[in-house]
Specification:
Chain A: It holds the Pfam family MNHE. The complex is a heterodimer of chains A (about 160) and B (about 130). Chain A is mostly helical and about 160 residues long. Chain A contains five helices and three strands; from the N terminus they run H-H-H-E-H-E-E-H. Chain A has two domains: about 10-45, no CATH class; about 60-160, Alpha-Beta Plaits. Chain A has a three-stranded antiparallel beta sheet with strand order 1-3-2. In chain A, strand 2 and strand 3 (about 130-135) form a beta hairpin. Chain B has one domain (about 5-125): Helix Hairpins (Orthogonal Bundle), CATH 1.10.287. Classes of the chains: A mainly alpha (about 160), B mainly alpha (about 130).
């Protein structure tokens, strides 16, 4: 079973995306989706030598909900900055976030979250993977912003990626 | 199509359009590349997002059938948008290091922060 489905999560995702792409649940679509979901993880397995183990469940759903909510709130915040703040009152700065996450996939997810929530863009990671370089559009207190990102996103991701 | 659905769809489209416009305006008026990078990430997330939600509400309520493609567009957009922003930022860091942008308003060529350990930033390799 393990050899046939080396990556069950990826298989489920592929079948799901395939059915969404077809936009209909038909017998032929499900069969072809299952074939793709079986074959692609087997052939792409060598590219994932030590893939992370995810804890599927409410943690992921709650994290997605939190990020989507933050995106909406932060959009209004940044829109106000763009429209109302004068350029010389902007306080753009670099944030260096020390990482507790170790797996590359978890750090990538954190960096993507930071880029998607407006007001911060992740720019770089240190060569030893312990620090993340983030550009903030307007941060009055860089240390508080770093603490917020760590408490809000990183602790939740640490629970999802075990 | 019911009046309620019409109100919801038009409100979502207007919201999306306004945020796309604000994102583009940010691209014009913000002072430096790194701050301008924040403008387009806004337009893709909430601007495109609410247009997609409007489309998901419109087609079923107009009797044209349910479509799932909007979910896929959202998924692919959320995967690709951070990567392209990251690539632009990395290219900018290289240009700064090579002094190609003489008067960047960030001034980050001089004071890019240290990593906090012996390792450097990955964009510049092991130096």
């Amino acid at each position: 079973m393990r050899r046939l489905f080396p990556h069950p999560g990826l298989s489920v995702l592929l079948v799901g995306v395939w059915l969404l792409m077809l936009n209909a649940v038909t017998a032929g679509g499900v069969v072809l989706g299952l074939v793709l979901g079986t074959v692609i993880p087997i052939f792409s397995g060598p590219f994932w030598p030590d893939r992370p183990r995810l804890r599927f469940g409410w943690g992921i759903v709650a994290y997605l909900g939190l990020v989507i909510g933050d995106i909406v709130v932060a959009n209004f915040h940044v829109a106000r900055i763009i429209l109302l703040r004068r350029t010389r009152d902007l306080r753009p700065c670099w944030l260096v976030i020390p990482l507790d996450l170790r797996s590359a996939e978890a750090i990538t997810t954190l960096a993507a979250t930071i880029s998607l929530t407006p007001g911060t863009v992740s720019a770089d990671v240190s060569t030893d993977g312990r620090f993340l370089l983030v550009h903030a559009l307007d941060a009055g207190d860089p240390a508080a912003e770093v603490a917020r990102i760590k408490a809000r996103y990183e602790t939740r991701l640490a629970r999802i990626f075990r | 199509m019911s009046a309620l659905a019409e109100i919801v769809v038009s409100a979502l489209i207007v919201t999306g359009g306004v945020f796309a416009l604000i994102g583009s305006w940010g691209l014009v008026r913000l002072p430096s590349l790194m701050t301008r990078l924040h403008g387009p990430t806004k337009a893709t997330t909430l601007g495109v997002g609410s247009c997609l939600v409007a489309s998901m509400v419109y087609f079923p309520s107009a009797g044209l059938g349910w479509s799932a493609h909007e979910l896929l567009i959202t998924l692919f957009l959320f995967i690709t948008a951070p990567v392209s922003a990251n690539m632009i930022a990395k290219a900018h860091l290289h240009r700064q290091r090579c002094r190609l942008d003489a008067d960047a308003a960030d001034g980050i060529g001089e004071d890019l922060p240290e990593t906090g350990s012996d390792a450097g930033w990955a964009t510049f390799g092991d130096r």
